[in-house]
Amino acid sequence: MPVRVAGKAIQDLDYLHTRVNLTELFDGDSPKIWKELERTLDASEKYLNDSDTVIFAATTLKRILIIVQNAHKPLPDHFWNKIILHIRRVWDYTADCVCYNAIETFASLLDIHLRQCLDCLERPETDSHANCDRINEITQWLLEPTSSCKARFKCIYHLVSQCPTLRLNLGEDFFRRTYPLLSNPSFSSVICQLIVDNIFDRDELWDLHCELLLTSTDAKLIKSRLVPMLQKYHLPGSNKEKQQQQQKQQKPQESDTAVKFLNQLLIQLNSQDPPSDLQSQLEIVHALVNTTWPRKKVKDDNGMQCLVDFSNWTQCISEATMGEAIVHVESEVRLAAFKLVVENPRKTIAFNENDIEYIKTFLASNMTLQAPSARQELIAAYKYLCQRLGASAEIHLKAKPKTTDKDSDSCSPDSSSFDSRGLSKWRLGGDNNLHPIPESYICLAKWMAKLAFGSLSTKGNYYRRIMGLMQIDVLFSRENFIVDGKCFFVDKLNLESTLGSDRHNLVIDCLDDSYDMVQSTALGLLKKLDFGNIKLDEKKYLNDAVDLMTSTRSRNATSAGFRMQYYLTRQPDRYKFCLMRFLDDVNNRAEAAEKDLLTITTLPIHSILNMIELLLRNPTWKETTDQEKNQFYREEILDHLLQNCHKIIKIVAPVVQSMTPEGCIPDEILSKLCGVSADRLTEISQHLLICCWRAHKHVSGIFAWIIEMLAPLGIVTNAEIEAIGSFYWAQLTECKHRGAFESATDGFFQLCSFLWSTTIQGLPKPADWLEEILSAIRGETDLTNLCSTRRSAGLPSLVLSIVATEPKENENGALIKATGSLLNMDGKTSEYRVHSMNVMKTIVQSSTLHNKAVFCFERALRVAIEACRADWSERNAASQLFAALRTKIFGVMRSAQRSLVVDAKNRKSNYEFFSKFPTLYKFLYDQLTSEQQSEFSLLPPLVVLSHLYTPASSSELYPLRPFVPKLLEIALREKRENLRAHAIAAILSISDAYAKEDLCQWIEGFDYQNSRQNHVHSFLLLMEGLGGCVDYVPRIVYVVENILKSLAFRNWSDFNINQLLLIANAYRLEYDVDDVSVELVCLTKRPLAVKLLQDRDVLKSEMCHLWRDEDTRREVYRVICKLGWNASNMFLRAHIITLAIKDLAIPHIPQCDAKRIMEILTSAIGNFMSTESLQKVEELIEARLEDPNLNWTLPSTIAYATKLRYSRRACVDQELIAWIRECYEQDDPETKQIALEVGAQFVCRIRSKRSYTDEEKELIGAVALYLQDESERIRNNTSYYLGHLIKDTGYKAINPEICRLLVIKWCLNDGNEDLSEFASSDRKHVRDERSGGDDLFDACAVNQYEEYQLFGDIQMYESSLGFSGVTAEMYDIEY
């Protein structure tokens, strides 16, 4: 096919984008400017598929109109429609710059028209009906909801901005259609502009806007976009003349209008029946508090002055609302409430007594936030809190405090100092030398420090510990309290004085944590904070670290590394001593392992090597010159450690390079283990493998450090560098252990970077290595033991490291050479072709090379497709390469692709794809017509074509219509179902409107009565695909109805009947299920089940013979499980329940079917299941559960059975309580949820009272376990079920953390304060004992959220919830 370079069609017009001579452009009878305009418009239409031309044409058109606009010249009338058509053609173009230029073109065109149109110039300013015909025409097509693109709304905004009276056309209908689009990020900004513009122009629509904003708009969008736009809309003072004109006309300023609207929004938000949820309410109030108008006087409708106050949250919502939000069951609501209390742009506003109560309640009960994003939000608000404490305290520090009577009760609440909810009204103060506000702040900050350090307990979970460390990091940073350089408050606070040995030990213990994030954060705090003169027992500390390194567990080795880093931070002069000690240990352990390899499992080398590598990468030299450092590195590291590392590699190589992933015991060792059991041998082999390969890994890391840090200093000899290079070369070309060659990859990358840039003579060159490995892959050089694995092991990483580190001055010479050699398959054997494609796949996937490798994609795609004709191993490598190319060319899939329909974002137009890869056009066509086709070679071209499409205005360049007949031919002749499906998917993807019309006509004329089954299948797939286009639905429905009426499908295969009935069900077409012989079909039973459930004739449906078929009933149950009972006709439900009970009674019913039946029966309880049916179910379940031959093994199956068993029980038994506790220990969320629902069924019957029976306590205690479940959803549900038991709360559900403590106190402990018996760590000790004997793997927690200590302040929680009986002592702050 001929290729035209359309991008150069009007490139000679680039002179218009420079300074031009207006006289040359506009002089003469036929001005040059109009000819250039005509050429630009023609090019934008003719070459619409050429993105370069369209971009340049759009930019040039905008430039021409700007020239005309600046020259004040009239635009010829015949250009008007052409420019409008151009705008409508490209305003939704794939390139954003084209859309932007279309909008600017429209604005310029509109401005030119308003200047030269006599009708518009003579139009009265207030007359909205006197616009000219062109303006009316533009208004009409812009307001028609025919196109939903961002540029359309931008054009509407420009139109109403330049023609203000047209705002009257934007009424209720327009905004009700437009508001739902706010959820789309592409539209949110421009639609918010239209909304704000309408708010300032038409106050009669305020009620409508408030309603739509509160019901159909995300509150975060109001906060982030709408409110800031209201503030920036025509800021007062930006236009003095306009402001003076407003004052003369007695019009309100823009800020007054915005404040009045936001006030009305707030009133509607706080109405008795607010239309938005609590979180949205808090988010909107937070946006109001952050406005630039904290307090503003405005005139109401009667002309009276009124004060609108947004300065603080207390002016916007009630205390009751905040009290409910701060202990809400949903973490998002609690976090929004805390941010509202804390974050205020006016930082000098002091916190009142209730603010401090809310802050303490929130912080104490939200230390275990699970989501990382929520933790980051909390820490950001925490830092803001510190800033506000400092800013608002500075004002009062210099002020003289008011003296109070010593006998007054200013330090404790009296009977009148409680609000309606029981919250204390603090009378701050008590220290005559300090103002009450800074004094209360100091108490609060020290309480926060106590809370944070208390959260570091090993009995807490990971989330609490990491939150505590993050809060300590913020709280003990002085700069977080300093505002405008004022340090009075932070000096008075002096939090550093609270640090001591106890808190130091708490942070030290975090170094042994099982989570790396906790360890690294704790180490950073230990280095940063000054804990005073802490005496550290150096001998014991070092011995503890050494003891940890005698274990094989990676956790212990990591802990030892963190401990040593902290020690050397305190004692930097001991760095050399510690490093020498560990070097001696490596030497001793290497010698022992050389004599007996099994000693590496009892005295592991890898932990010492890990420590050495850590110390080398984090040196703490003190008063040491560079010469002394180099001398030490030369004598100790290079002369001794390097030799030991090579010795260790030789020792562990037989184990690491074995082909057994479970482990390997060398023969000479195995002979010494005669009589050892097989289980013990397995354990020894795993232990040995892990110890060996971890040592191998750290040796690679040490070599990488030597190359990175010492080689540039010139103290490493050429022989040593060559030895390191030989090690990496051997690992990447011979080693088959994935961990081993992956750890060598990073070191080899460093080595190649150094060798490419070094000027040292005599070193090996990466280019020589590349030539050597490419020769080996070509089969020209025999490399012994070259990787023979399916993915070529480390070979791809070796080549990638060389080409990715190539310096820029080489101009990708190594990459070009490598790809050229790899993609040349001539003369290569199958093994080397596999290696070539594996290496190419890694190069294509590399993010380091980015777009450097694009030049070879075309050839690589051809190689991958052609290689699919080879044997299995080569096909496998080719498919991997093809998948990598598809991802790079068409982009990563945005979501899981569950059908052959490709997402629009992963498709390219025919011109866009073939202009980049022109030779593929003929190549793909030839692949479809080749006589040497196979199932595997035909599939890749079909996949490529399914990623292409033909735009609406396609040109003659690279047409896709010639592919359609060939694809249809493949779809009709192929015996393989997947190829037929891919061929139809490709047809539907590349077909334009004309091709689809031809296909629809082909469908209408298809002889489905006399065709082969393969042809019928392709016909049905094509018909289903065309049904996705609304224009063809009536014709498709007509064809399907004719097939159903003719009963021709009765002779079809089961597969085709299933496809036909799926289409019929999708269009809700009527057909008789008795026309299908159920004995002859299998797949068809699924759509038949859907039809049975939706049948309007209930009597006929109940009598249908299909119900007698077991498989059909099974499909019915599956549909109900998936879609719910709403998928069934309500009059059929009783019949289905009866059949389900009978099927459940079958003795050997499969477990999956039994579970499905019990699931639908469970959902029917309490809705439409009769008492008789429920009694039958209970009796049946009782009998099945007592059957010793029961085949139900899944916990979820037993859970459904238990739920049915106890559905009508009035009271619980010990068996049920034990089962609920047992389910809590399960890993299956479904089982846990069902067990929780069963327990809640009985808990909800218990009323809140002073004391509970032992049986009630056992039940409540079993259900309360789920308040510590790993799933937040289960914890919240548990809080809903137990919330009514908590005394005096009045809430349905509260924060599960608070709920747990109060349930323990009031329900399980009869209101007693001593809860020590409920804070047991027995279960944790049991788990540690279970894993203590295993020195190989780290212990893992079943439930990461579970804690073994009660955290929180019950009295404070009771006060926040409004409990009666509050005493003053509960407010004493200890620190």
From TrEMBL:
Q: Name one GO biological process term.
A: tRNA processing
The text of the family note is: Belongs to the THADA family.
The family database entries (Pfam families) matched by this protein are listed as:
DUF2428 (PF10350), TPR_Trm732 (PF25150), TPR_Trm732_C (PF25151)
Give the region (Disordered) as residue ranges. 402-421
Listed A to Z, the keywords are:
tRNA processing
Protein's name according to its UniProt entry: tRNA (32-2'-O)-methyltransferase regulator THADA
**Residues in domain tRNA (32-2'-O)-methyltransferase regulator THADA-like TPR repeats region?**
311-519
Entry annotated with the keyword Nucleotide-binding:
no
InterPro entries registered for this protein in UniProt: ARM-type_fold, THADA-like_TPR, THADA-like_TPR_C, THADA/TRM732_DUF2428, tRNA_methyltransferase_THADA
User: Is the keyword tRNA processing assigned to this protein?
Assistant: yes
The chain's coiled-coil residues are none
Question: What residues does the tRNA (32-2'-O)-methyltransferase regulator THADA-like C-terminal TPR repeats region domain cover?
Answer: 875-1023
Organism annotation: Caenorhabditis elegans
Q: Where is the composition biased (Low complexity)?
A: 410-421
Domain annotation DUF2428: ranges: 637-872
